[in-house]
Amino acid sequence: MIKIVYWSGTGNTEAMANAVAKGVEAAGAEAQVIEVSTISAVDLTEDMVYALGCSSMGDEVLEEEFMEPFVEALQSQMSGKKVGLFGSYGWGNCEWMRDWEERLQKAGASIVLGEGVTCVDAPDEEALEKCEMLGKALAVE
Predict the structure, then answer these.
(1) Which of 37, 34, 56 is nearest to 47 (CA)?
(2) How many Å apart are CA 1 and CA 97, to the nearest integer?
(3) Strands (E), 55-123
(4) Looking at residue 134, which CATH number applies to its domain?
(5) Using CA atoms, how far apart are residues 130 and 120, in angstroms rounded to an integer?
(6) What digits encode the pLDDT tens for the residues 35-80?
(7) Are residues 63 and 55 in contact, defined by beta-carbon separation less than 8 angstroms?
(8) Contact at 8 Å (CB) between 96 and 89?
(9) CA-to-CA distance for 109 and 101, rounded, in angstroms?
(10) Comparing C-alpha atoms, which of 71, 81, 84, 109 is closest to residue 21?
(11) How many domains does the chain have?
């Protein structure tokens, strides 16, 4: 079972999470899409592969009430984990995703596909295809 944990304010990142799950399932694995407020970092302790999704907020940062504390709690258990990242943003230059990738790599995680999947605003067909590719890559890790 590959867990796909996300936060979405407008539904854009949720749509991306569902596309990641579609890719996981197309590759023959089981996927579980989970809204971040309903899970704790402890729930991922045994998982070696999972995905995290969040849209960019404010000054190009993760959502601060649920996702940021969740990621902070995860950092101590990320060594050796393979993590897929995804999310949407409405402005800026995608610095928040690069910061997130670097942060998790410093914690010992390997970023699946080498970088997070992003899109501006609602995911178009190309972004959804990239999310499905991420899901497929997660399933074979």
Answers:
(1) 34
(2) 25
(3) 82-89, 110-111, 117-120
(4) 3.40.50.360
(5) 13
(6) 999 999 999 999 999 999 999 987 788 999 999 999 999 999 999 9
(7) yes
(8) yes
(9) 9
(10) 84
(11) 1
